[in-house]
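Sequence in, structure out. Go.
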Amino acid sequence: MLRSEGHRLSRVVVCTPGDEYCRVSDLKKHNIIEPADPDRATEQHETLKRCLADFGSEVIDVPELAGHPNSVFTRDTALCTPEGYIKLRLGLESRQGEEEWMSGILDSLGEPFLGEIEAPGTVEGGDVILAGSVAFVGRSMRTNERGVQQLAAFLGAMGYEVRVVPLPDSILHLDKAMMLVGPERAIYGHGLVPEGSLLGFETIGILCGGPTTANVICLGGDEVIVERANQEVAKRLTAQRVVVHELDLSEFAKGTGGPNCLILPVERG
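Output:
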């Protein structure tokens, strides 16, 4: 069950990088800046998995999907909710097909299927943050209005208050502009997330840009994973008595991904 991203992370799906991610040929097609170094990417991902496991999370590691270098970014493929998972529909054309792949994985884990986003709607998981009674949904270059409407219907039926956050094209996903760091605490980018959208939450504001991003993994209990280059955020969170694990995930920044992009939370609490 997953009601809030601020609760303790107890079960998560990840995908170790291999030939698909590290040897991609058409960078533009897959929105990858440059190919990752295979040894460094594997080492960094192993460190991430150890950190998750040491925290007490069950880490389910699955193989890459053939022909899909972005399958290492499991976050975007599905949304796990208190009533089951929603199969999403990815906004980047070269990623479409990953939804079916992840749906099969979640089915094998015994997760109930709730429904799916249908064309022409698109929703990517990095644009959705469940936060107790509130669900934040980013309307972005990857999550369109039709997708937002379909997702809002699912979430509204579960009792969530859906708060839509319009994002500029410079911000790929909502999780780059905001993320929970505890059940009622959120880090957010000034000028990207309206403060009125965050009513009811204790907020920690940052100036997003360059390596500074809200893209962190909330482990639960005011404990997070932060990319090592994201020093402003690490310092801000530490000053707010959040326990910060700084990990080098630079090989995944080459694929325009941050820590949160690398996990699909299945259960929290």
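Check: The mean pLDDT is 97. The helical segments are 19-22, 38-55, 98-108, 145-157, 231-239, 250-253.
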